[in-house]
C-alpha cells in the first residue's frame, strides 16, 4: 500500500508495513539473517522511506550498530525516499549495476517486482518470528510459493465514532454486531439529518469495500491452474458489494466521487459521526490544524472493531511495507542480516513503542491487553490481501476497483453490471507481467 506521509502532522499512531530480503532462487542458496558470515564488502546501501527517517531513526541506527558489531569496519549507507518518488528511482537503478542492497516496498507494490524476479528469494526460517507472521503480511511477501520479503510492521483499519454525537442520539455503547451498528447509525442519521453522514465512507476507498467482499466469502480474484481470474461476479462477492452499497446509500452523504486521501480532514470538519480507517486518521482529524469542531474531537473519539454483516469482525486489509533485497545486490547475505537486526523481536518492540503493529501474532497478543492498542490489535487478527498475480500492479494503476465502486454508489451501474465490467477489465491484465 502506498502510504501518505503522516509524520508532518505529528500523529503518534502510524501503521505501515515491512520489508523483505533475499538471495538466489535456488533453495540451497537463499539469503538468511540468522548468522554472521565473514564478508569482504566495505559497505551496504539501505533504501527506506522518510517514515523511518522522521519517526524512528534510533531503531535504524540500532540495526546498523548490530550489523557493524558483527562486521567491524562495515559502513551502512542510507537513502530515504518519499513514497511518490521511490519506485521511479528504483526502476531506474535496477536497470544498472548500482542496485541498493535493501529496499522498502509498500506491500501491494511487491507483487509486480516479485513476478519480474527483481527481488531475491529468502529463507524465512532465518528471520525472527517468521512462523508467527501475520497472515496478511506473509501473503504480501510470497509469490508462487516462495518468499521474497520479511514483514516489517502493519496497519489495520478500525471504526471510530464520536461518543458525543452517539449519546445525543441515545447510543451509549459501541456496537459489537452489524445489526447493532446499523441500528445505532440509523438513530444517529435520524437525529442529525439528511445532510449529515452518520458514516463518512469515501466511495473510492476500495480497501474498505473489498473487506465486505471477503467478509461474505468472496474474493477479488481466484487462482486455478496457475492462472488468476477475477471473481467479483461470484454470488458471495455480489453479496458483499451489495451490503457495502446499502450502507453507502443510507449513511454516506458526502461527495460520492472522492477517495480516502483526505478523509481525516473531512472528518475534522464535524459533519460525520463515524469513519472506518487506519488508526492514525481519527487522531489526525483531532489535531488542532484540522479539527473544526471547537476541540470536540479530541475528547470524544472512541475506537471499536468494525463488525461485518457475516456476524464476525470485518476482515481488514493489512497495509504496510516490505523490505526486499534486489537480485542485483552484491551483498545479499549482509542485507539479510541487516533486515533481521531491524525486524527482530527487539526491533518490533521498538516499533510497537512508536504506535505500530508488530509483524507477528506473538507480539500482537501483548497489545490486546493494552486499552490503547487493543482495538487495532484485535482488528488485525482477521485480514485479507490482494491477489498475488503478476498483473496486479496494472489493476491498481488502472483504478478498476475504484471506478467500479463509484459507478455503483452513484447509480450509474447496478452491482451486477459493475462487477461484470470490472471482471472483464481485470481479466485482461491480471496474468500479464507489468
Automatic annotation (TrEMBL):
Keywords: Signal, Transport
Stored Pfam families: SBP_bac_8
Signal peptide extent: 1-19
Family: Belongs to the bacterial solute-binding protein 1 family.
Name of the molecule in the record: Extracellular solute-binding protein
Organism of derivation: Actinacidiphila acididurans
